[in-house]
Amino acid sequence: MALLTTGKGFIRDLEKSGALGIFTPLEGGSEGRYQRRLRLNGYESFSFTAKGLGDIEAYLTKVHGVSTPHLGKKNIGQQAAVGPICFVPPIATYRLDNLPSECKGLILWIVEGHVFSRDELEYLINLPHQEPRIKIVVELGGERYFRWESLEKIVQTA
């Protein structure tokens, strides 16, 4: 990988396909360069991990309930057995509604994407078609150099 990369090919492929699967060197650092290039080109980036997401559609686009940790205190007979449930706004649609007017769109940068099932990856492929301002980048594994490919192509070959 070149020390100074412009990221133009990465951005062009992301805008074209809407969802990319990336493979990064295990020592890290190179993905930050590409996130910076995306921000310089007018995108807002939001990073999160794939582990523990649950229903990815609800997490990204619908208001959903989350059970809070009980911290050793239980309400016996007063609430549900799982404890109090807090309702949180969807990550993607909430951030889209609050984007600055000059921003091109929202990049959802998902770390540890190797835990996703085929159905979840297909949902991520279709999400940019439903909402064109959303682009998806999923880190799928390690490689000796930073490499990307259309997520749709990766799912088809798997």
From TrEMBL:
UniProt main location, coarse: membrane
Enzyme Commission number, as recorded: 7.1.1.-
Localisation: Cellular thylakoid membrane
Family of this protein: Belongs to the complex I NdhN subunit family.
Function statement: NDH-1 shuttles electrons from an unknown electron donor, via FMN and iron-sulfur (Fe-S) centers, to quinones in the respiratory and/or the photosynthetic chain. The immediate electron acceptor for the enzyme in this species is believed to be plastoquinone. Couples the redox reaction to proton translocation, and thus conserves the redox energy in a proton gradient. Cyanobacterial NDH-1 also plays a role in inorganic carbon-concentration.
InterPro entries noted in UniProt: NAD(P)H-quinone_OxRdtase_su_N (IPR020874)
Record bears the keyword Ion transport: no
Species for this entry: cyanobacterium endosymbiont of Braarudosphaera bigelowii
Membrane topology: Peripheral membrane protein
Keywords of this entry: Membrane, NAD, NADP, Plastoquinone, Quinone, Thylakoid, Translocase, Transport
Annotated gene: ndhN
Protein name listed in UniProt: NAD(P)H-quinone oxidoreductase subunit N
Reactions the enzyme catalyzes: a plastoquinone + NADPH + (n+1) H(+)(in) = a plastoquinol + NADP(+) + n H(+)(out); a plastoquinone + NADH + (n+1) H(+)(in) = a plastoquinol + NAD(+) + n H(+)(out)
Assembly behavior: NDH-1 can be composed of about 15 different subunits; different subcomplexes with different compositions have been identified which probably have different functions.
HAMAP family reported for this sequence: NDH1_NDH1N
